[in-house]
């Protein structure tokens, strides 16, 4: 804090110590993720090399004909830099201008998808076309210096059909986020505005439910899900579904598991909105529900986005529920990676598993980058209200 | 708010929680007392192989499952009482180990092994998470404003990363001749393999959990530090309190509610430790309570799942969580009563 009095100022030694601890922590926090990213771009011999320098420079990868020259690195870096800058400066304005009123979320989805397509085309389509002749002309500057190969990503996504798992993950997370928020905002609002003992007991019950290990719950579903076709036959007749292996059944389960957390969090956000606001709306003749929809929801977006982020993380990161309740065809990304363990006989398989892991991490990285503020405010909102 | 409106708002959420959380619990309780098995019958089978001059025929009695009219095996469900619990707890071996004077043998029973690890894991990582989280929060608070944003960004990464992937990323640094293992080998001059014995695996798991959760504690403590009363701090300086004394008598008491909050969340989350075991592939050395249930639920080679044993171990796990929550819940109840509106 810059405005502190002289007495509060710190000695040089303390500043140095605290600064170096901070540097140490940052390295510790980022290193494992950084390192598996580096590994995923190298040939197996380099990826599991003894010397860290070999892993970074990738001599074997380079010798195999997959290398980047200084020009490649400079130009690629420049394109990435400008792409990132553009994404944070121009893209929001463009989306806000072009998307029809009220459909800003849809506008962002389309905008982000289009942006990703353009970036991928430029980076992997146009750039190599320019760089090929450029490298040939420039002599020493065009010599490859850094080994780098994307072959593991190609084999993971194309040959091992990881895009199917990606699709399933997206389906499950989209379902979890949408339903969690719809059901959760209603409940959060009801709980925040009611001071009754019943509301208190519901919250305590939710707290106990939050503490339950997920395996306890799955032990309860599994027999019912496997036999659901027979159990539901009297109600639905011949079309009764087997719930085991169905993504939408998993969505329902994950939403329920997520509900306790969602209602606690949304309740604390709703409590921050003064209740005079909906009282005024009620005086103007709105029903409770109209007040909720027309007056409260428009100011609740930050809270909804934050809770949505955490619901996304739950659905996206879940291993236990999806691995037990989904069959092999409908597997999401995280349990699919466990499939690599069984095949992991050669180092190539291992590096492919690394590449798959990095692919799973990349969207989370983007998520933190864009929504850092919301995540922090969400964590603290939960903490302050207990 | 009228009860009817309240019910309309809260209803869908409560309905889902009852359908998918409360009912499964009842179902787990019932399943843990019964066991479903395929009905077997003993039949005489004559198998003949071509031999020289005459066939060689062997008659043997085999036990095979009965196939019903719909082509599925017929199963019966029997009420077995505490049988599954006995199978999971193995009390006879437990008492035998105690009466033999070798309590160490208890840890060879999966359930007790899992319980030991789960409790150790929770209790060892708890102070570390709070300590490291507080340390990061204090140093970030000390740092220049410009670096705070990037530091928070980097700190959030371990917290946000998929737990299985996070533990895998650390696993790959140490597995075989991973770079950190080979670095330690160069320093010590010894051959090190981190995943060959239980204690190193356990150590890595503690490390991973602290790495993963400390950022969560950090963000919350950091928010708490922003609201420390500056006047109190300054008067403490005037009274001659050293930096450490100020931390102990002003800052920490101010953060106490947050420390309790983090402890509670940590208690809940550590009790269901699971992903580390998948990521480190540690099931041969270390088991946790949640892993035990998961393992029973996975189909074995014949495709059968030990549902009743899984239910028994799930019930035992749940009893544990109830014990852990009694104290905090009593506190919340007293607060609710005290500050009732």
UniProtKB/TrEMBL annotation, chain A:
Membrane topology: Multi-pass membrane protein
Domain named ABC transmembrane type-1: residues: 166-371
Keywords, alphabetical: Cell membrane, Membrane, Transmembrane, Transmembrane helix, Transport
Location (main, coarse): membrane
Residue ranges of the TM segments: 12-36, 67-84, 105-131, 170-191, 198-226, 246-266, 295-316, 353-371
Gene3D superfamilies for this protein: MetI-like
GO biological process, one term: transmembrane transport
Any one of the GO CC terms: plasma membrane
One protein family per Pfam: BPD_transp_1
InterPro entries reported for this sequence: BP-dep_ABC_trans_perm, MetI-like, MetI-like_sf
Subcellular location: Cell membrane
Family: Belongs to the binding-protein-dependent transport system permease family.
PANTHER family cross-referenced by the UniProt entry: INNER MEMBRANE ABC TRANSPORTER PERMEASE PROTEIN YCJP (PTHR32243:SF18), MALTOSE TRANSPORT SYSTEM PERMEASE-RELATED (PTHR32243)
Protein name: Carbohydrate ABC transporter permease
Highest classification ranks of the organism: Bacteria, Pseudomonadati, Pseudomonadota, Alphaproteobacteria, Rhodobacterales
From TrEMBL, chain B:
Localisation: Cell membrane
GO biological process entries: transmembrane transport
Tree of life domain: Bacteria
Residue spans crossing the bilayer: 7-30, 117-140, 152-174, 206-225, 250-268, 306-327
Pfam families, alphabetized: BPD_transp_1
Cellular-component GO terms for this entry: plasma membrane
Main location as per UniProt: membrane
Record's bilayer topology term: Multi-pass membrane protein
Residues of the ABC transmembrane type-1 domain: 115-328
Keywords, comma-separated and alphabetical: Cell membrane, Membrane, Transmembrane, Transmembrane helix, Transport
Family: Belongs to the binding-protein-dependent transport system permease family.
Annotated PANTHER family: ABC TRANSPORTER PERMEASE PROTEIN (PTHR30193), INNER MEMBRANE ABC TRANSPORTER PERMEASE PROTEIN YCJO (PTHR30193:SF37)
Protein name (Swiss-Prot/TrEMBL): Sugar ABC transporter permease
